[in-house]
Amino acid sequence: MTVFIPQNELSDENIAAAGEILRRGGLVVFPTETVYGLGANALDGKAAKKIYAAKGRPSDNPLIVHIASPKDAEDIACTNEAYYKLASAFMPGPLTVILPKREVIPSATSGGLDTVGVRCPSHPVAHRLILSAGVPIAAPSANLSGKPSPTKADHIRADLEGKVDMILDGGEAAVGVESTIVKLDADGTATLLRPGGITHEMLQRVLGRVDIASAVTEALPKDARPLSPGMKYRHYAPRAPLTLLDGDDARRIAYCQKAPADTLLLVFDEETDLFAGHKVVPLGKKADKQSQLHRLFAALIEADAEDPRQILAPLPATDGLSLALYNRLCRAAAHHIKKL
Ligand code: TXA
Ligand code: MG
After folding, report:
1. How far apart are CA 240 and CA 53, in angstroms?
2. Are residues 163 and 277 located together in one domain of the fold?
3. Same domain, residue pair 119 and 8
4. Is 173 in the same domain as 296?
5. Does 218 fall in a domain?
6. Which ligand is nearest the CA of 67, by number?
7. Beta strands across the sheet bearing 3-5
8. Do 21 and 28 contact (CB within 8 A), yes or no?
9. In CATH, what number is assigned to the domain containing residue 251?
């Protein structure tokens, strides 16, 4: 049975009950500022395994470990100077840093790797929950494996009701896409593995050079072993084929207007009236990348629910916050891009 705690009942008692569930090896879904997380005690391999079962997630895909304060990374990872530079600039916040793991992190949590992803979320409910649990919390996004990450508690109830012990409703997630992931190697190399609300440009301002893993912008060659195991799995995908349109607005709009009637169009808020014969789902305001990130997964879920024959969407740029949109949409589209 899943206990659902609505947003207006996030009392200290209920958060304490959630912490107790985690300490005893159970599963709790909780809000973060990026997307909802499906949490278990990160130090308990058996509990971590339950996450994989509930999500249908391949067991070689490691979990991110959530901590209450940047210095708590000392207990679970081997930190370095670059970590503390990133921590003082961006933590708490939507950033995950990959570091060598300490032995307390079981291999079920790290997906068999000798590294661990450390994240200090800024969402007050996440923070209260970690403190109440008294242990670091391993949590992937609270979606079934391969589906878009949930930004609202409704999305989760559909997927995980009955598979977890408790769901904490914290309202809509603010950022809307998962944390930026950066890997720090012993030789000082920093590599961006997943773009998010903390941009490549922001990371470079703090660390100097930061490489971008090729899987961020390109399709992985078959049988490749990516730096981040999650990169090799199909992700965020609606059931209907999604095609990204590479061309200026006028061409894209004209192309969409001529598409077959059973095509669903993902378009900017300002454009929704231009497509009389089609179902449209708004993607956020055209000039406001933050609003597009915030809308992205909900838009993909809404598009999927309409059960269209195909979906068309604009191809984002690759600078600033757009890189996160580009990366998620390209993966949802299995890199299917049409040049106009
Ligand atoms: O915003 C977020 O990061 C959310 C919230 C809940 O915190 N969590 C999240 O977790 O997105 P998940 O499991 O959906 O995505 C984690 C990604 C996966 O692609 C995984 O392969 C990668 O991070 N990852 C985790 N640990 C890693 C490690 N040690 N080395 C390389 N990649 C790692
Ligand atoms: Mg995920």
Report:
1. 26
2. no
3. yes
4. no
5. no
6. 1
7. 3-5, 166-168, 28-30, 37-41, 137-138, 64-66, 115-119, 95-100, 180-184, 190-194, 211-212
8. yes
9. 3.40.50.11030
Number of domains in the chain: 2
**Which helix H or strand E contains 183, and what residues bound it?**
strand 180-184
Evaluate whether 117 touches 62 at the Cβ level (below 8 Å).
yes
- List the residue whose alpha carbon is closest to atom 19 of ligand 1: 230
Atom of ligand 1 nearest to the CA of 142: 6
CA of 65 to the centre of ligand 1 (A): 9
Which residues pair with residue 123 across a beta bridge?
none
Ligand 1 surroundings by CB, under 6 angstroms: 32, 34-35, 37, 61-64, 96, 98, 110, 113, 115-117, 119, 139-141, 178-179, 181, 193, 228-230
Using the mean position of ligand 2's atoms as its centre, give its distance from the Cα of residue 258 in Å.
35
**Residue-range definition of the domain harbouring residue 334:** 242-339
> Has residue 283 been placed in a domain?
yes
Proximal ligand: closest to the CA of 37: 1
Which residues have their alpha-adjacent CB atom under 5 A from ion ligand 2?
141
> Does 171 share its domain with 246?
no
Provide the CATH number for the domain around residue 29. Answer: 3.90.870.10
173 with 306, same domain: the answer is no
Per-residue pLDDT of the chain (340 residues; tens, 9 = 90+): 999 999 999 999 999 999 999 999 999 999 999 999 999 999 999 999 999 999 998 888 999 999 999 999 999 999 999 999 999 999 999 999 999 999 999 999 999 999 999 999 999 999 999 999 999 999 999 998 877 788 888 889 888 999 999 999 999 888 889 999 999 998 889 999 999 999 999 999 999 999 999 999 988 777 777 787 777 666 778 889 999 999 999 999 999 999 999 999 999 999 999 999 999 999 999 999 999 999 998 899 899 999 999 999 999 999 999 999 999 999 999 999 999 9
